[in-house]
Design brief:
Strand 4 (about 105-110) and strand 5 form a beta hairpin. The protein has helices at about 5-20, 35-45, 55-60, 90-100, 115-125, 130-165, and strands at about 20-30, 50, 80-85, 105-110, 115. The chain is built from 6 helices and 5 strands, in the order αβαβαβαββαα. With about 170 residues, the chain is an alpha+beta fold. A 5-stranded antiparallel sheet has the order 2-3-1-4-5, with helices on both faces.
Length: about 170
């Protein structure tokens, strides 16, 4: 890797750290290519990214970012899972770690809050941003549906009374 490629990678990582909602630091010793590809696909489907980067370049990119406190976790073979949705990357990483013993979660951060392994697991249990949006839409629509049902009901009752009177 020449200097220009390293500079490009550092710039890309700085952009990722500036735009992301959560960073999960993982260690993936012994994952096969198929397992790594599966993990990347799961991350992509969830709206997250999974990137293996040299620790030295990642440490340079972390300088002056809100995620600088996680630099202690970047020792040995590590990879970074990131997403703008604070739950997506953590959820995929935790689910993948359940099925693969070689995949280990070291910790991470959400903004300037450093998270340990238990913090990442707790974050993964929260509903995603899309699930929360769906719940809010349902809560907002519920009163309108009830109002429409209530205003329609008196006319229905009147029609049933007239129908019963006509039958009698």
């Amino acid at each position: 890797m020449d200097r220009q490629q390293k500079a490009d990678l550092v710039a890309e990582l700085k952009t990722v750290f500036a735009e992301t909602g959560v960073v999960v630091v993982t260690r993936n010793n012994g994952l096969t290519v198929a397992q790594s590809s599966d993990l990347r696909n799961q991350m992509r489907d969830a709206g997250a990214q999974f990137k293996v980067a040299k620790n030295r370049l990642a440490l340079i990119a972390l300088e002056d970012s809100t995620y600088q406190p996680i630099s202690d976790l970047l020792k040995g073979p590590t990879a970074l899972a990131t997403s703008s949705d604070p739950v997506a990357a953590a959820k995929v990483a935790v689910n993948f770690a359940k099925d693969n013993e070689q995949f280990e979660i070291l910790g991470g951060a959400m903004g300037d809050t450093v998270l340990d392994v238990n913090g990442i697991k707790a974050l993964a249990e929260l509903p995603s941003l899309d699930e929360l949006r769906g719940t809010l839409v349902g809560l907002i629509q519920a009163p309108a549906t009830k109002i429409a049902r209530i205003t329609k009901e008196p006319a229905g009752m009147l029609a049933r009374v007239l129908s019963a009177k006509a039958a009698a």
